[in-house]
Give the backbone structure.
Amino acid sequence: MEAGDRIRDLEGVDTIMALLPLQFQDKRGDATPPDTINLHNKNLRFTLRTLRNLTRPNGNHPHGPRLDTGANMLRVFDTLQAWMGDETSKGLTLQVLLNLSGISHEKRDPTYQNLTTPQFSNSDTYPTRKEVPNDQTGTTGNPLAFLRRLETDTHKIELTIRSLQHLPSQHHTTQMLGMTVLAALI
Amino acid sequence: MRELGLWTLKTLGKVKHCCPSAILTLLDSLRVLTAGRAPWEKEYQYWIHTGFTASLLAMHLRGMASDDLIKLGKRGLDDLLFFIQTHLIAQGGRGLRKRVYVGWKAVQETLTIHLYDAITDLLRIQSRHDTLHLPGMLQAIADSIADNTLSEDCTVKGFNILACLELGLQSSPLDGVILKVLQSRWHDNTLTPTIWEQGHRQRRALHVAGGNYGPDETARILTLISDVLHAYCLHDSPFHVCRLAGPPKNDRDSLVRTGCHWMRDLAIIDMSNLNRIGLLCTKLLLRILTHMRDEPFTIGHCITLCVC
């Protein structure tokens, strides 16, 4: 059994998800030392990398873990506004969000997607998730449907995309990830 | 004469000074004052003289530089090394097997600290990097460090010597001594947060200096870390289950923090260790992530180990 499966079996993903809001919000003081910022940023990145791997569907968990609860979605959304977050952490956040939303792999690939013509006009029919009963979301059982209900929070994705636009590096990949999620919500 | 000798040694100790040539005089004087007795033949009065002499030797060495060691000459250095080696005596050690002075434990603690100080300064000022690398000396140091009846301060001072010895890749009696101490203290319930932390820090320093972790050592360390984390990770720890008081929260947190840090180091040094860590500690890591959210360093170590 792989480490990831072991963590999933122990419901560790929920534990790690629960770290997001407690660990990374509203802790910034006026004079936060750079070392503290770096430490929290590093932790955030590692947390998101872990979540990205754990929420990715794999052989042992073909439909992905059932993590697309409202609480988890909101925690991930909030991470987009974490005070110490940088472009990399935003990109990782969007990847986690994408995993949770259940958008299929080939369609989520930014190089595959033509952003001018969104592919997910009716993403309720997302194949890998539609047969999974979901009693945790309190929604229709489809994570995308739940995402639509979080419309206010999806604005955070737009803000992220816009903020990345003004950075010299442009961060196209991260922007495309965000656009993929937004396109799926249309 | 012994009273006069004691008075002289006491008086010398009151004034901080450094005189390399005095080292040989001190050692010769001690031989006269103790009638040339070996450690197992010494009684109370002789140990008092020995203790004061060791203290003065440490004081002289503290103020010396490399050039001063040359002034000491070959005989002076040989006598000094002989004194250190024969008086660095562990519990049940070679020097006291024949007959043990009843008040030895009280003498041992202070004497060992003076000798560790002398060793540390000798390593600092040595003209050759193998001044203390005689097999007998290394064995005496190893036995002394491994003596878990000594105090925390003494053990930590012993650990500090290891990195200064610069043993490199050659095998020596000191190989694995840190793990031996930690395991022994763990089994005897005398493992303190400071010893645990210093053990990790000094093993790390040895690794940086070229002392790689062997597979057997790694496996033993991971097992020990797992045992420590399990004992101090709240709720289903033996302390909690048996409703024992256990160590204070700060100590428990410190032990857990060091364990996580060491585990992360081992995972970074060799990624194949991650599998073993996962088998032994996944549940513990998740529990730490839940209960130690206010400690960003510990959280960082744990979350690094969860990246798979």
Summary: Residues 3-185 of chain A form one domain. Chain A touches chain B at residues 2-4, 6-7, 10, 12, 15-16, 18-19, 22-23, 36, 39-40, 42-43, 46-47, 49-50, 53-54 (CB under 8 Å). The radius of gyration of chain A is 16 Å. Chain A has one domain: 3-185.
